[in-house]
Predict the 3D structure of the following.
Amino acid sequence: MAIGLTADRSRSDTHWAHEQEVIGPGLQAVMLWSKLCVERAEGAMLTDVDRHDIVDFQGAGGVNSIGHAHPRYVAALAAQLATTPTGAFGSPARLDMVNALRRLLRAPLDRIQLYSGGTEAVEAGLRLAKSVTGKHEFLSFWGGFHGKTLGSLALTSGARKGLGPMPAGFFSAPYANCYRCPLQLTSPSCGLACVDAARDVIKRESTGALAAIVVEPVQGRSGNVVPPDGYLAALKEVAEEFDALLVVDEMMTGFGRTGAAMAHHHEDVTPDIVTVGKGMGGGYPVTGVISTAAHMASAPFSEPSASSSSFGAFPLACRAVATTADVLVEENLAEHARKLGAELLDLLRPLADEAPLVGEVRGLGLAIGIELVADKATKEPVSGEVLRETFLALLEAGVLVMTGGNTLRLYPPLNVDADLARETVDVIGATLTRGAR
Ligand SMILES: Cc1ncc(COP(=O)(O)O)c(C=O)c1O
């Protein structure tokens, strides 16, 4: 298959320029860099308005779970649209969603409340944690990302410049980022010293009102940083020491992405609250808060209209979740992601020795990070300009990736054809080995 961009992007350039006359600034960096205007998409492939074929490993940052235009998904949503009411009624779609989710949710975390944006679900998770505990403080982690509204932004250390003041009662601790250990230690001999550091932060900062520890099981925006085994279980113990909850933000990692239905299933741990979205709807904007029946019964969260939202559980959203969940289960996609992700990681890891800019390759399932450094010894991150040039070199070679910090992030669809994935990884390897500049 011929993939890649040729010199002629005239239609895209004109199309993009017209759109930008009205669209506001601040779009995703990779969209601004690529100026991709996509006419059609299927599986893992995009075709732009200039008829270039591009492999999509950007996957909307993990949203594209079952591939673009999965035939079963297209048929189900089209049929739903023809009869769908506008409103969050009980509906056949909602019943089908409930039955589909039963196959993915693990007791006791078997209740879900639906929203339409990730940050909205995270905010609902904070409200639920406050309702359960009667407390209002939160600990989150350096490098984490949880959204851009006030509560989720306050959890997102490092992205607040110019947006203050932040609400009181939010504090943060170093994440288990072993490539760049903030404590200058090495895993496993460190004995998860960063968890002790989190405990210290709570002791120093909290007024005794810690409601929850909020953590990503794999830090997505920081470049798919994977913590060592046992990290979530150790954080759950810390939360319990302070009579607080563990909230696991699975927005990117949930619904098969890391090779299990939820990333926390890789560990023997039961969080109190899980926030989900992205891959759950297969492209439809639907997100959720998952918890136990007992937690969800807590007021004020449980009071009428207290945890609802305008679009939560509209039939189209429910149909999207039901169909995506059915496809995930029936096509065994978490297992495919686990096996193929491990194989792709094996193919990519040598780049840390062979490619001039690659500092580390890491990942879990089909969430893969390739961290770019200017100097392998000091691990100095590449500049934004080098990141952009590398991203554009990959795009020219026909591969669209996501970025985050100084890392290239790969999120193929969970049903990506294994041969296409291997070929794409070859293209990435060859481009990075050549040196993008
Ligand atoms: C872990 C995590 N939580 C929350 C969010 C916020 O989601 P949204 O952009 O839909 O508000 C994101 C988005 O990337 C995310 O990765």
